[in-house]
Amino acid sequence: MKIAVLAHIRHAIAEPFGGGMEAHCDMLCRGLRAAGHQVDLFAADGSQDESLVPICAAPYDEVLPWRVFRGTSELAAYQRDAFERVLLAVGAGAYDVVHNNSLFPEIIEWCARAGIPCVTSQHVPPFGAMFDAVAATRERPNIGFTVTSQDQQALWADRGCAGLDVVPNGIDTDRWVPIGEPQDYLTWVGRIVPNKGLAEAIQAARKARVRLRIFGPVEDAGYFTEKVEPFLNEGIEFHGHRSGDRLRAEVAGAQAALVTPLWDEPFGLVAAEALACGTPIAGFDRGALSEVVGDCGVLVPGGDIGALAHAIRKVRRIDRAACRARAVEKLSIAAMIAGYERCYAGAIAGARLASLPRLAWDSSCSRTSELLA
To answer: How far is CA 22 from CA 144, 226, 321, in A?
Structure first.
């Protein structure tokens, strides 16, 4: 198949990845190509991909930072201009299917009206404009939706959108690998924002008297200054935003990985990556984390620092070979791609049966109609 993959354009699809969405998009493209598909990645300039189609001059966080421009007309216009460029390609019928990996809901509506086969991966819980777009189009036969976990599927069903397909995120089990005997430290990897629970992880590590190495981008400077920086010492170390071999080696060398979401985590990519390295998980039981971890970690109620400290003491007893085996069997890129291929087939078949006019834009898409005319 020839597939158009649409990225979220807040960050470039390049290491060090801005977050799980960017890492997932990179793995998606590589995995599809490995399965024999032809893939074009529509993403912000600065992304690193062998078949990149730039749709904006820079990731929007570089020109219109989300923390400042969230919800503004300026940010909406920047995204709309970018994704209208996508439509010039996909609207002409150049692709068998569109895989929408973005958070721009109008893409779903445009593809639904045009009869373009489109599968959208939902990386966030059901809220806002994205929920509205799913609710409005989920009965269209050419439109498919995936969520990353049974937990997310249940949340969407509770809001009236039942039947979304579950395709767990995959990780590269050829890159995230064990490296030998673990050393005497734990890791925490993620975006440094309050809902990732780093402050609680630090306090639990201090309480358990273990060393902790922290990796990730500081997205909330005030939170870092108040809740993290005062506790950095010989045992609690911040190593910045790392990528590639360095990060994989650090995670593989840890006794355990702390994963501490304080929100309903849709998946938990850092947990899957740690398991692939043979590194067990101690963390908060929020969202989908228990589905990812299974019996290869110790999870406690979200926010319970004392329970997390106790989990840290227990988790190092878990068999590291079992952690690796779980990741290879259930969380590989190949398993993810097989799930997406089934969804693509459904959207393509639905588009053929529906025989919808490919350029049936309504007034809300008038500018795009002009571009495609």
So the answer is: 21, 28, 28
Closest-CA residue to 28 (of 47, 56, 54): 47
CB-based contacts of 239: which residues, under 8 Å, 6+ apart?
213, 214, 215, 250
Q: Can you read off the two tokens belonging to residue 89?
A: 């390609």
- pLDDT the model gives residue 309: 98
pLDDT digits (tens, 9 = 90+) for 41-62: 999 999 999 999 999 999 999 9
- Angstrom CA distances, 207 to 169, 191, 228, 251, 253, stand at 33, 23, 15, 21, 22
Calpha distance 61→75 (Å, rounded): 10
Of 266, 270, 210, 221, nearest to 243 by C-alpha is: 270
Cβ-based neighbour number of residue 96 at 10 Å: 16
Query: pTM for the complete prediction?
Result: 0.84
CA-to-CA distance for 61 and 73, rounded, in angstroms? 15
pLDDT band at residue 92 using 50, 70 and 90 as cut-offs: confident
Beta bridge partners of 215: 189
What tokens appear for 76 in the block? 């909406």
